[in-house]
Amino acid sequence: MDLRDKTVNFLGDSITEGVGVSDVSCFRFDSIIGKKCGCRKVNNYGIGGTRIAHKTQPSEKARHDMNFCGRCHDMNRDADVIIVFGGVNDYLHGDAPLGKPGDKGRDTFCGSVDYLTRTIRELYPNALPVFFTPAHCFCDDGFSQIRPEGLVREEHFLSEFSQAIKTIAPQNGFYVFDMFEELGIDPKKPEDREKYTVDGLHFNDEGNAVIADVMIRCISSI
Q1: Euclidean distance between CA atoms 179 and 124, whole angstroms
Q2: Exposure check for the chain: N or C terminus, fewer CB within 10 A?
Q3: pTM of the full predicted structure?
Q4: Region of residue 90 (phi > 0: left; psi between -120 and 50: alpha; otherwise: beta)
């Protein structure tokens, strides 16, 4: 799809919000996409710390509990493209069970992905829906190392959250791209962490440029 003259909504977490970027108006990936592709408008709905699924126990920062399922109702209704990029915080510090494909309630991650993607299709029927799975981070090859003390949850790998998105979102009409495979950046490698990120999770200006190019390439293939 050609993004020229299109309005694009980006729904995400701190990576979409632009944590780690020196100037969000110039170097955040949505800003780069808007300029490179000649978009009519890009709308950024990224909020740091947020998850796709609801968290049973309130977070220390209330802002982190503004999950994707609730916020998807509040985006620009005239968008031509909806891009969802998230899921890493569900792995890092969420407490919703992973669940399984077929879940319909918002009490599991799988059920929340189903709810989110179905709701976006209902609210924005004329928009192209695209989901990018979480990218590699500094601790995705094991159980989350930064889960808050006392948080009890079944243990899963980040790749399992990505697989859930890849299984469920297409059932609701979404195009899905796997950032594990597409991005080509792995912050567990010291050279990648230093070159593309500020902390092994959030991407710097150069990392955002790579994200933008990957998203443009993937969307252009649709």
Answers
A1: 24
A2: C
A3: 0.94
A4: alpha
Q: What is the mean pLDDT of residues 185-189?
A: 96
Q: Report the C-alpha gap between 61 and 49 in whole angstroms.
A: 9
- Contact between residue 132 and residue 74 where contact means Cβ atoms under 8 Å apart: no
* Cα–Cα dist 34/42, whole Å: 6
Write the DSSP string, 106-144: TTSHHHHHHHHHHHHHHH-TTSEEEEEPPPP-TTTTSS-
Helix (H, G, I), strand (E, B) or coil at 10: strand
Residue 33 in contact with residue 2, Cβ under 8 Å?
no
Report how far residue 16's alpha carbon sits from residue 50's, in angstroms, rounded to the nearest whole number. Answer: 11
**Which of 85-99, 139-153, 168-182: highest mean pLDDT?**
168-182
Residue length of the chain: 222
- In single-letter form, the type of residue at position 42 comes to V
Q: Do the Cβ atoms of 172 and 111 come closer than 8 Å?
A: no
Summarised one tens digit per residue, pLDDT across range 199-211 is 999 999 999 999 9
